[in-house]
């Protein structure tokens, strides 16, 4: 097993790095990072077998997605789709349908692509978010900012818009066109960033980047009725410095939620109670600064967080019974990391 980490390439990073991983419980370790794909700004990427889909920012004029295929232990570029302006901030994927979803924070555009076995991309449709319910914070007043675009439990599509403080739902119809279905509004200034869903598909949990909060919402994916259940802070009540929440994940059994805090520089862990409300059970250091992304292996036994500003990663052992994280290795050198994938 290995861990892939990509991120910004503003300083020392050359793209995407691979770190060998040894699975030995408390003695598990990540090895030295090795650059495996030279690419500009792969701040998010997804994998499907031997295919890797990465954000690419080759120059100041355009950005988009590049596709790489693993052959003879080397990744070779097989396709690129670029558009004028900034590159996307998020890439979602459905390997079964061979569909790829991107959200562009700066241009406001969400896109759906199809890809074939060789990794060739075909753009199916796009939608452009506009300034409808912009929040009051400085990061919101300049327009819509889609930060997430992926699938719901029922196979619809969902987009988190940081600028508008909204969660927007779509359907990809038989003609491969996006149809808007419904909108849920977070509180003004929430900074809607990323979302996860309960195991039963009747609740979702939204991470607010600008508010450092998680909003728990009950919803019906047929009638599109929403019920705001509760909101929780991801940082201590006495924290008075800057913080922005980033990645959010829910364990496959639906019992625990994890979120990263950039500023407070922690991972916050919540237990999901029987009524889907949350209980804070842990807040643990990331042993670095600005943890944008973290991820776990298929067993969800090991967690790796990448710290963008301190060029390091941290490895934790996760207890599946109580959800708690135990750090077992830190100060793992990797430059400018913003995305973590176990491979």
UniProtKB/TrEMBL annotation:
<dbReference type="GO" id="GO:0005829">
    <property type="term" value="C:cytosol"/>
</dbReference>
<dbReference type="InterPro" id="IPR050282">
    <property type="entry name" value="Cycloisomerase_2"/>
</dbReference>
<comment type="similarity">
    <text>Belongs to the cycloisomerase 2 family.</text>
</comment>
<protein>
    <submittedName>
        <fullName>Lactonase family protein</fullName>
    </submittedName>
</protein>
<dbReference type="Pfam" id="PF10282">
    <property type="entry name" value="Lactonase"/>
</dbReference>
<dbReference type="InterPro" id="IPR015943">
    <property type="entry name" value="WD40/YVTN_repeat-like_dom_sf"/>
</dbReference>
<dbReference type="GO" id="GO:0017057">
    <property type="term" value="F:6-phosphogluconolactonase activity"/>
</dbReference>
<dbReference type="InterPro" id="IPR011048">
    <property type="entry name" value="Haem_d1_sf"/>
</dbReference>
<dbReference type="InterPro" id="IPR019405">
    <property type="entry name" value="Lactonase_7-beta_prop"/>
</dbReference>
């Amino acid at each position: 097993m290995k861990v892939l980490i990509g991120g910004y390439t503003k300083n020392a990073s050359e793209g995407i790095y691979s770190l060998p991983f040894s699975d030995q419980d408390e003695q598990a370790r990540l090895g030295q990072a090795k650059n495996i794909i030279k690419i500009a700004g792969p701040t998010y990427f997804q994998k499907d077998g031997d295919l890797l889909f990465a954000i690419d920012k080759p120059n100041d004029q355009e950005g988009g997605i590049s596709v790489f295929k693993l052959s003879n232990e080397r990744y070779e570029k097989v396709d690129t789709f670029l558009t004028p302006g900034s590159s996307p901030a998020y890439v979602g994927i459905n390997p079964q349908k061979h569909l790829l979803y991107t959200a562009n924070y700066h241009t406001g555009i969400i896109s759906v692509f199809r890809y074939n076995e060789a990794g060739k991309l075909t753009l199916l449709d796009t939608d452009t978010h506009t300034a409808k319910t912009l929040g009051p914070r400085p990061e919101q007043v300049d327009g819509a900012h889609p930060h997430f675009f992926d699938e719901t439990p029922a196979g619809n599509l969902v987009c988190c818009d940081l600028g508008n403080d909204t969660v927007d739902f779509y359907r990809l119809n038989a003609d491969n066109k996006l149809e808007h279905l419904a909108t849920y509004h977070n509180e003004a200034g929430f900074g809607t960033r990323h979302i996860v869903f309960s195991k039963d598909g009747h609740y979702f949990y939204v991470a607010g980047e600008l508010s450092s909060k998680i909003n728990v919402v009950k919803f019906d994916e047929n009638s599109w009725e929403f019920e705001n259940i509760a909101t929780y802070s991801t940082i201590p009540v006495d924290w008075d410095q800057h913080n922005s929440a980033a990645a959010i994940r829910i364990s496959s059994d639906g019992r625990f939620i994890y979120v990263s805090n950039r500023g407070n520089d922690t991972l916050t862990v919540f237990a999901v109670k029987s009524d889907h409300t949350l209980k804070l059970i842990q807040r643990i250091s990331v042993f670095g600064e600005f943890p944008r992304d973290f991820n776990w292996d298929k067993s969800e036994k090991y967690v790796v967080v990448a710290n963008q500003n301190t060029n390091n990663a941290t490895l934790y052992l996760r207890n599946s019974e109580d959800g708690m994280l135990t750090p077992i290795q830190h100060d793992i050198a990797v430059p400018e990391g913003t995305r973590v994938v176990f491979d």
